[in-house]
Write a structure and sequence with these properties.
By secondary structure, this protein is an alpha+beta fold. It has 5 helices and 14 strands.
C-alpha cells in the first residue's frame, strides 16, 4: 500500500475546493473551473496532470496523475473573473494559436521559406491579459485558502488582468517562443539564477507557443524568444530548430552555477491520454 501511494501524484492533494479567495480579484466565494490551456486554443481531450518536479530528474519514478475527461482545469478563480477577464479575451488566444498552428505546419511541411520565423497580427493587450490570467489561476487550491495580500510580483499582474493596461509597465517583461512539445506546462512562479542574475519567472506553454512573464529588466528567457510589447500589433515567432533544446523546461542549460527553485505545487504538467 505504501509503495502504491508513493506512485500517486501529489497534485491530487491540490485540486479539491468549493469556496475560497479568487486568485485574480481576491474576493471570497464560490470558485469556478478555469481551463488551462483555454478552450478553443487546443483540442480538448482527456488529460492527466502531474507536478513538474515529479517527472524531472535523471531517473524519475513513474506516477499516476490526476485525470480529467475534458482538458486541464484549475478551480482557483471566481466566475466573474473567469467570464469577464479571461473568457472575454480567450477568443484572441484561440485565434492566435489556431493561426500560428497553420503557419507552423506550412513552414515545416514545405520548408521553402527564406525566413526562420513566422508572423501574424494580434491584439497584444487582449492576448496577454488572457494568458497572464491563466498563469495566475494555474496553481494549487491552497493559495485560495489564504486571505490575499499585496505582492510586488503578483499584484501588478492581477491589476492588469482586471483591466489596468498600465499596471505592469514598470514591473514586468513578457516573452514568447516556439514550443514544439505535446505536453502542456504551467509554472506560476519560479526563481532562476543565471550568471549572477536572479529573476522571478512565470511560464505557460502549450503547442505551438510558450509565454513567459519576468521581472522588469531582469529577463531570463530561452534563445529564440521574442519580447512582447503591449503596443505590438504583430507577433513574431522564431522557428529555427537551433533553439529547440531550450524551448521546454528548464529554459536555460543549468550548467556551472546556473540554478532554479520553485514550489512543486505551482508547476504543473498535463498531457493527453487514451481511454
Amino acid at each position: 500500500m505504501g509503495d502504491f501511494t508513493k506512485r500517486l501524484t501529489e497534485r491530487r492533494m491540490h485540486t479539491e475546493i468549493v469556496q475560497g479567495y479568487c486568485l485574480i480579484c481576491g474576493s471570497y466565494g464560490r470558485l469556478s473551473w478555469d481551463h488551462v490551456p483555454p478552450q478553443g486554443s487546443i483540442s480538448i481531450n482527456k488529460v492527466e496532470q502531474v507536478h513538474l518536479t515529479e517527472i524531472m530528474g535523471v531517473d524519475p519514478v513513474p506516477v499516476k496523475g490526476v485525470k480529467s475527461p475534458n482538458g486541464s482545469k484549475f478551480k482557483t478563480i471566481c466566475k466573474s473573473c473567469n467570464s469577464n477577464h479571461l473568457g472575454a479575451n480567450d477568443q484572441e488566444v484561440a485565434r492566435v494559436y489556431k493561426e500560428l498552428t497553420k503557419l507552423v505546419a506550412h513552414y515545416f511541411t514545405y520548408a521553402n521559406s527564406p525566413l526562420s520565423y513566422v508572423t501574424l497580427p494580434f491584439d497584444a493587450v487582449r492576448f496577454c491579459r488572457a494568458m497572464i490570467g491563466h498563469v495566475l489561476s494555474a496553481t494549487t487550491v491552497d493559495e485560495c485558502k489564504r486571505e490575499p495580500v499585496d505582492a510586488p510580483y503578483f499584484t501588478p499582474l492581477q491589476k492588469f488582468v482586471m483591466g489596468d493596461d498600465a499596471a505592469i509597465e514598470n514591473t514586468h517583461d513578457l516573452y514568447c517562443w516556439f514550443y514544439p512539445h505535446r505536453h502542456h506546462l504551467s509554472a506560476k512562479m519560479f526563481g532562476c539564477w543565471n550568471h549572477g542574475n536572479l529573476c522571478m519567472i512565470s511560464v505557460l506553454s502549450f503547442f505551438p507557443l510558450a509565454f513567459s512573464i519576468t521581472e522588469k529588466g531582469k529577463g531570463i528567457y530561452p534563445s529564440g524568444a521574442t519580447k512582447v510589447e503591449l503596443t505590438d500589433d504583430r507577433l513574431f515567432v522564431n522557428l529555427s530548430s537551433g533553439h529547440f533544446p531550450y524551448s521546454g523546461f528548464p529554459l536555460i542549460g543549468l550548467s556551472g552555477n546556473q540554478m532554479m527553485a520553485m514550489s512543486s505545487a505551482q508547476a504543473i504538467v498535463s498531457y493527453p491520454i487514451k481511454g
